[in-house]
Amino acid sequence: MDSDKEKGDSVIMKRDTEKMYATMNPWKLFFIVALPGMISMFAMSIYSIVEGIFIGQKLGEGAFAAVNIAMPLVMINFSLADLIGVGASVPISIALGRKDSKTANNIFSCSVIMIFVTAVIMGAVMFFAAGPLCRMMGADDVLLDTSVRYLRTVALCSPLSTIFFAMDNYLRISGYVKTSMAINIGSNIATIGLLTFFLLVLDMDVVGSALATSVSMSLCSVIAMIPFLRKKTLLRFTKPIFHKAMFKQIAACGSPVFLNNVAGRVTSILMNISLMTLGADAFGENGGTTAVAVYAVLMYASDLCWPLLYGISDALAPAIGYNWGAESYGRVKKIVKCAYIGTGAVGLVSTAFLFFFPGTVASWFANAKDALLLGESTHAIRLFCFAYLFRWFAVTTQGFLSAIEKPVLATVMSVTTALVFPVIILGALWELGLDGIWVNFVGVNALAAVLGVFLLVHVKKEVRKRRLEGQNQAYGN
Fold it and tell me: Which residue range forms the structural domain that includes residue 360?
C-alpha cells in the first residue's frame, strides 16, 4: 500500500512539474521558479560573503590574501562537480520533455556516483600536493603556510561538500524549488553559526573558516539527498547503467560551465601573479599582498551581485530545456525573454549599488585599521562596478545556450569570457598598473555581450530552419 501511494505521489509530482514547464504563463513561471532561484543562489553565495567578512575583520590582510591564493584550486574542485551536475541536468531536462523518464533517472543516478568519485580523487590531490599547488598559485613564503592549511581543510570535506550544488540542480528539476531554497538558506545559517563558533569562540584562523563552510555544505548535501532516497521526487535513483554516449553527452553539456570555471581560475592565477608585481610597484615592499587582498575584496563584492544573475538563468534552464526538447520554440522564446528582462534589471541595480556605495561594501571586508586596503578597495569597486552593465547579458546568453544543448557555442562564450578576453585586456592595459586590472572586468563583459549577440543570431537562424522543416513535413504528410 505504501509503495502504491509513493508511486501515485510521484506521478502527481511529475505531472505538476511538467504542466508548470509546458503551460504556465511565462511571467508566472518566472516568479515561481526564478525568484526562489535568485534567493537560493544568493543564499549559496552568502557563505562566501560572510567568510570574507570574518577573514577580513578578524584575521586581517595577510589571511585575506592567503585565502585568495588558495581559492582558484578550491573552485576548480567545485567546477568538476559542476561539469557533471550541470552536464547531466541539461540532458535530464530534455529527456523529461520527451517523456523519457528512464533515461533521465539513469543519467541522474550515474551523475551522483561520478561526482562522488571525482571529489574523492580531487580531495586527495589537493591534500597531498597542497604545497606545490599553492606555490604555483603565486604564494610567497609569507602566504604559503596559511594557504596550504586552508586548502587541506577544504580537501578533507571534498567528497560530500562538492555534491551540494548538483543536488540543488536536481531538486529544482524535480519541482522542489522551495525545498532547494530552504536548504540553501539553512546552509548559510549553519555557516554563519560555525564561523562564529570557530573564529570568535575557539579563536581559530583560516582553518576554522574553511571548516565552517565545508561542514555546513556537507551536512546540507546529505539533507538534499533525503527527498530522492524517499522516492518522493520526479527523479529517482535507479541501477546505474554507464555507457560511452552518456559520458560524452554529460561532458559536452557540462563543458561550457566547467571550462568557464577553469579558465576563470587560470585567469585568477595570472591576476594574482600580476598583482604581486604591480602591487609592489604601486605600494612598495609587501604591496603585492595588499594588491591581492584588494582583488579578493572585488571578488567578494561581486558575490553580492552575480549570484542573482546566475540564479535567474540557472533556475529557468530546466523549463527552457524541457520546451526545447518538446520543440515548443515559441514558448522557449517567451521564457528566455523573461530571463533577459529579469537579469537586465538586476544588472542595472547592481551597477548602481556598487557605484554609489563602494566604501560601505569595501568596509565589510577590509578592516578600518588597514587604511590602504580600504581606500584602494573603494577605488577599485567604483571602476569594477560598470561590468554589470554588460555581465547580465553574457550570463543569460551562456545559460540559454547550455540549456538548449549547444555546448560548442556555450563553450566559445565561456572560454573567451573567462580567459581569452581577460588576458588580452590585461596586456593591453598593463601600463595603467592596478587600474588596468580593475577596469579589466568591464572590458571583458562588454566584449562578451557583443559576442553573445552574434551567437544568438546564429541560434535564431537554426530555429527558423527547424520550423520550416517541421512545416514542410506537416505539409508533406
Answer: 2-476
